[in-house]
Amino acid sequence: MKIAMIGTGYVGLVSGVCFSDFGHDVVCVDKDPAKIEMLKRGEVPIFEPGLDVLLAKNVASGRLSFSTDLAAALEGVQAVFIAVGTPTRRGDGHADLTYVMAAAEEVARALTGYAVIVTKSTVPVGTNRQVKQAVKKANPALEFDVASNPEFLREGAAIDDFMKPDRVVLGVQTERADEIMREVYRPLFLRDFPIVTTDLESAEMIKYAANAFLATKITFINEIAALCERTGADVKQVAKGIGLDGRIGNKFLHAGPGYGGSCFPKDTKALARIGQENGLPMQITETVIKVNEEMKERMIDKLRDLVDGSFNGKIVAVLGVTFKPNTDDMRASPALKIVPALIGGGAKVRVVDPQGRAEGEALLPGVHWVDDAYKAAQNADLMVILTQWNEFRALDLQKIARKMNQPKLADLRNIYSERDARRAGFEAYVSVGRRDYIRDAGAGPS
């Protein structure tokens, strides 16, 4: 089967590469000539573990190619996937459909025969029907169907998620579209992965509901973490205790500085907006958005308290600024609020991140980038763990404490423990949702 993928951003590129690995003939199309040339050279513009290897394999096989020529790419296709950005629209929180609708109209004018036009981008309920009308208007004679196929890829584990999904959601209107979409995902049907075939609106809603629920779960455990700090409970033990309940599950119950990334922030805002437009406010989702922002402020207050009420003149080492490990994505990362607060308070900030520098240099002006945690710790007054990269999970804390001017650690991902910090010689240690350890200066570890 020949497939065209419109857009070579995160979703489009991962999906296109994986479809080609299914055995399909895939052409990835983008308007950016520099990006297409980069991909033709085998260079991947995003960091996603294993993507470069899989891309090279399928280019070599002849199943995967890249082009700026939309008309040529659409010759003989049976499915056209639209995977362009839907950022939050300024002013109202709704998803901006400008790129989706523009892509649909361009596809309509370039297609010469029947194809299923599939929306892979995350879009509000009703968008696929708008796409259908836009295509009809742009090319009244065209025979086509539309389909909704939302993605559920976790950055850092996207290839595995695509190849071994929890489920695939297909929103279709006709048997012909259903048959083609089943052929697209035939390898997964053969391996009995769950395929949910439904209507357009339900498919669109599934995506938003899933992300809002996960964001809610994260925010819930962060609120419980704040309460644990006040009452003396340990959020890690609480999360374990409730996560063992099969009705709850243990995923997304890790306390931290709040959710970020390309999906949860914009999708919760979009769902809230959809509710408002339909006269049914999504009160839980709206509260999740509010509380998530407040959590970042709580983290800033926690850090300020740790350095005696002022960042001014302090040297702060920050470990990790991407919104999660195994990605270079900085979108809506808690670091984008926390690090500027440190700098704005007069601190000198050193940053260590295995993949964050490419985007971070522009997004975090005024920081000094260093290669490793030990260099960052030299004469520092505070070390902050913001992202739980594997490189930060087994640090020599004793070595770091000796290098610091004031050995204080803010572990905002709960990687270490009060006992770890105490034994390493830290005079102060704070985490999220657990008893903090602050030792009087000069007191020995017990």
Quote the beta fraction: 5-15%
- The CATH C-level class name of the largest domain: Alpha Beta
Question: Largest sheet, described in full?
Answer: 7 strands, mixed
Q: How many strand units? A: 15
Put simply, the count of helices is 18
Mean pLDDT over all positions: 94
Shape annotation = elongated
What is the helical fraction, as a range of percent? 40-55%
Q: What's the CATH topology label of the largest domain? A: Rossmann fold
Query: What would you say the CATH architecture of the largest domain is?
Result: 3-Layer(aba) Sandwich
- The CATH superfamily of the largest domain is known as NAD(P)-binding Rossmann-like Domain
Identify low-pLDDT runs. Answer: 440-446
Distance between the termini: 67 Å
Structural class: alpha/beta
Radius of gyration of CA atoms, rounded to a whole number: 24 Å
Order the strands across the largest sheet as they lie in space.
Answer: 11-10-9-12-13-14-15
Number of domains: 2
Word description of this protein:
- The protein is α/β, with parallel strands linked by helices.
- It has two domains: 2-198, Rossmann fold (3-Layer(aba) Sandwich), CATH 3.40.50; 234-446, Rossmann fold, CATH 3.40.50.
- Helix content is 44%, strand content 14%.
- The protein contains 18 helices and 15 strands.
- It has helices at residues 10-21, 33-40, 51-61, 70-73, 98-110, 127-138, 158-163, 175-184, 186-190, 200-231, 235-243, 264-277, 283-306, 335-344, 357-363, 373-377, 397-403, 418-424, and strands at 2-6, 25-29, 64-67, 79-82, 115-119, 144-148, 168-171, 195-198, 315-319, 348-352, 368-369, 382-385, 408-411, 428-430, 437-438.
- Strands 11-10-9-12-13-14-15 form a seven-stranded mixed β-sheet, with helices on both faces. A six-stranded parallel β-sheet has the order 3-2-1-4-5-6, with helices on both faces. Strands 7-8 form a two-stranded parallel ribbon.
- Strand 5, helix 6 (127-138) and strand 6 (144-148) form a beta-alpha-beta unit.
- Helix 1 crosses helix 3 (51-61) and helix 13 runs parallel beside helix 14 (335-344).
- The longest helix has 32 residues, at 200-231.
- It is elongated and about 75 Å long.
